[in-house]
Design a protein that fits this description.
The complex is a heterodimer of chains A (about 375) and B (about 260).
Chain A: H1 8-13, E1 24-29, E2 32-38, E3 43-47, H2 48-54, H3 56-62, H4 73-79, E4 86-90, E5 100-106, E6 111-121, E7 126-135, E8 141-152, E9 157-165, E10 169-180, E11 185-192, E12 198-201, E13 204-207, E14 212-221, E15 226-235, E16 241-250, E17 253-263, E18 269-278, E19 283-293, E20 299-307, H5 311-319, H6 324-336, H7 345-362
Parallel strand pairs in A: 1-5, 4-6, 5-7, 6-8, 7-9, 8-10, 9-11, 10-12, 10-13, 11-14, 12-15, 13-15, 14-16, 15-17, 16-18, 17-19, 18-20
Antiparallel strand pairs in A: 1-2, 3-4
Chain B: E1 4-13, E2 16-26, E3 31-35, H1 42-50, E4 55-64, E5 67-68, H2 74-80, E6 82-85, E7 92-96, H3 97-104, H4 109-118, E8 128-129, H5 135-149, E9 153-157, H6 165-178, E10 191-195, E11 209-214, E12 217-222, H7 224-238, H8 245-254
Helix pairs in contact in B: 3-5, 5-6
The chains are: A alpha/beta (about 375), B alpha/beta (about 260).
The complex binds adenosine-5'-triphosphate and magnesium ion.
């Protein structure tokens, strides 16, 4: 049995706090579900294995479906393991305002953690999930592979926020795919603010008629971190829409930022914006925006820019009496500031706080 | 020694000499106007006084409050009491105007609200600095920022250009507060240098002297109203006061 002391400070940093009001919570330490509860009628939060017994369709229809078992070496590897993770289900028509909290902790040095989560929202259901991933204490090394399959029924709405706060010897491979039903809305927020050895992730959303998928990511790369992150929005249905916004600040390491928007039916539209800010000569930002159109009646566009803080903006703020450090912090903080429509205030202000702390910590 | 004393100032931009020996002084509580054709070096002078990068002082000196400031950084000069209203204020995406005003931390929240109201900028506090602001809105935002700072030397680079008549009077209200124009001259502690092409600002703010800069030199001095009339009537090339450098000495004595 595991005897790792859980560092509650780190849990707070990723937004997991058992005392804060939330509709439910779920926590895994290494390979063991430590906490799984749910306070609301119409919401199911269960360890995945238990869900297989209670709800047969989960194993039969949802498990390794939107993420195919053989989609990569990572998934093949994961498929051989006992699935540890959550099954979250919201009944049709139930709208839940308080966010559901989930945390994945890593405690054992040198081990591999495999997580498999399944999220299912019934027609018209609404939920916000704040997922935090962290090492339970500093200085752990290992690998985390996390598969998340999400199924949104007609007109459902899911806000999915992921805050990574890994120790810097971790290698992390989140694999995610979302099936966005007719008229459904999916919002993903990714916040990566700490040094990490390697993160590779490129989730996909398949969007049906009238649905929308939006991916926002904010990354602050430090030291010799390696991020290969992205998002793919595949607009399958008519009038489906997508947005991908990524902001990367680098003071070291490598960030590869991949975005794909693909429109296949009439009326689909999408917009993508990737901006990178290099604070010195130690980092690399490689932005790869891709647009793919397979129907003439679509509207897809992108903006991309990589550069440094403008001297003119710095001087402007300094004429007001700010020191160079203060001016830089203000500009970097502003650059990372994305206000996300449809995100509960609580989640937004929590994200804001993490980003501010990270910017202050580095300047 | 005057409040501001500029002596034989030479300034180069990207290796090219723009200011070629400027002499200019200004007393405490005084307001000076600068006239001069496009490209004559007016903004360059403002940039050199405030210490903006790119304006290299190759000769001469700038003393402010008795201290040579020509080696100080922009923010050091700002904290010493120099404030600049830009001719072309840049936009800063992501930084809300209110965040900047609060970060400056010079005025109470009540004052921020009051001054924003005065400048009709209440609705702009939550917007990113100058992003999507019209020309006139940017100029008002400059004045609002300066009201936080309350600088002892106010450098105003065409504060009224692109601003409609009503808003010029709004801007002037703000500037008069900074410059304590309601006080008798002997009590005023703040000075200003104002660049203007239109002279509109003169209708609202009384100035003590005007300097004419041409081709990197101060070529004339005089009473602001008179010089402006002459420039309007005869143009820069034929305006005799514009070339009356000898009067500058007399005016200096008066300041
Ligand atoms: N960064 C620069 N690079 C090259 N030349 C410059 C630069 N900045 C200023 N100059 C030149 O210096 C000269 C003076 O410019 P300045 O902006 O000081 O003029 P000004 O008197 O303020 O004109 P205006 O009335 O048009 O604002 C101009 O010829 C201008 O082209
Ligand atoms: Mg100018």
């Amino acid at each position: 049995m595991n005897t790792v002391q859980i560092d509650t400070g780190r849990l707070n940093e990723i937004g997991y706090n058992s005392c804060v009001a939330s509709c439910g919570s779920f926590m895994v330490l290494d390979h063991t579900v430590m906490e799984s509860h749910c306070n609301i009628e119409g919401l199911v939060v269960l360890p995945l294995k238990q869900a297989f017994d209670t709800y047969p369709h989960v194993r039969e229809k949802l498990f390794f479906n939107v993420v195919p078992r053989d989609s990569s070496d990572t998934t093949l590897q994961a498929a051989e393991k006992e699935p540890v993770g959550y099954y979250v289900f919201v009944e049709p028509g139930i709208r839940i305002e308080e966010p559901l909290q989930a945390a994945f902790l890593f405690g054992e040095t040198g081990s591999h953690q495999f997580i498999h989560n399944i999220i299912e929202l019934g027609e018209g259901a609404e939920l916000n999930i704040v997922n935090g991933c962290t090492t339970a204490t500093h200085g752990r090394s290992g690998t985390h592979i996390g598969i998340t399959e999400t199924y949104l029924g007609k007109n459902a709405h899911l806000g999915y926020t992921m805050i990574h706060n890994w120790g810097h010897d971790m290698e992390v491979f989140p694999v995610g795919a979302v099936s966005v039903g007719e008229g459904a809305r999916y919002i993903s927020n990714y916040v990566g603010m700490t040094e990490v050895r390697k993160i590779v992730t490129n989730p996909a959303a398949y969007v049906e008629t009238g649905g929308s998928a939006r991916f926002y990511s904010v990354i602050f790369s430090k030291g010799d971190s390696y991020f290969d992150t992205g998002a793919r929005v595949l607009l399958k249905g008519k009038d489906a829409s997508g947005e991908i916004i990524s902001r990367v600040v680098s003071e070291g390491g490598t960030v590869i930022s991949r975005q794909l928007l693909s429109g296949e039916r009439a009326g689909s539209f999408g917009h993508m914006e990737c901006s990178g800010l290099l604070l010195n000569e130690n980092g690399v930002i490689h932005s790869i925006p891709e647009l793919r159109g397979a129907h003439p009646d679509i509207n897809l566009a992108h903006e991309a820019a990589v550069g440094k803080i403008s001297r003119e903006e710095l001087s402007y703020l300094m004429t007001r009496g700010l020191t160079e450090e203060q001016a830089r912090a203000l500009i970097i903080r502003g650059f990372l500031d994305i206000k996300i429509e449809g995100l509960p205030d609580k989640v937004q202000s929590f994200m804001d706080e993490i980003i501010s702390r990270s910017v202050e910590g580095s300047i | 020694m005057s409040f501001l004393e500029i002596t034989d100032l030479h300034v180069s931009v990207e290796g090219k000499e723009i200011l070629k020996g400027i002499d200019l002084s200004l007393g405490i509580g005084r307001t000076a106007i600068i006239f001069g054709p496009n490209g004559s070096g007016k903004s360059t002078l403002m940039g050199a006084i405030s210490g903006l990068p790119g304006y290299e002082i190759t000769q001469g000196s700038i003393t402010f409050k008795g201290q040579d400031i020509s080696r100080l950084s922009v923010d050091e000069r700002s904290r010493l009491g120099i404030g600049l209203s830009f001719q072309y204020p840049p936009a800063i995406k992501g930084v809300r105007l209110l965040t900047l005003l609060e970060t400056l931390n010079r005025q109470t929240p009540e004052k921020i609200t009051e001054y924003a109201q005065l400048l009709n900028l209440t609705a702009y506090l939550d917007r990113d600095i100058n992003v999507g602001f019209s020309g006139g809105e940017r100029k008002r935002s400059e004045v609002l920022q300066l009201m936080m700072q309350m600088p002892d030397l106010l450098l105003l680079d065409e504060p009224e250009s692109g601003v409609d008549i009503e808003n010029i009077s709004v801007i002037a209200d703000g500037l008069r507060i900074i410059l304590e124009k309601d006080q008798p001259i002997s009590r005023r502690k703040r000075s200003a240098i104002i660049i203007t092409h239109t002279g509109f600002i003169l209708d609202y703010i009384k100035a003590d002297i005007a300097f004419v800069i041409m081709n990197g030199h101060v070529l004339g001095c005089g009473a602001p109203g008179e010089i402006f009339e002459e420039i309007r009537r005869d143009g820069y090339s034929k305006c005799s006061s514009c070339f009356a450098e000898k009067f500058c000495e007399e005016y200096k004595g008066a300041l």
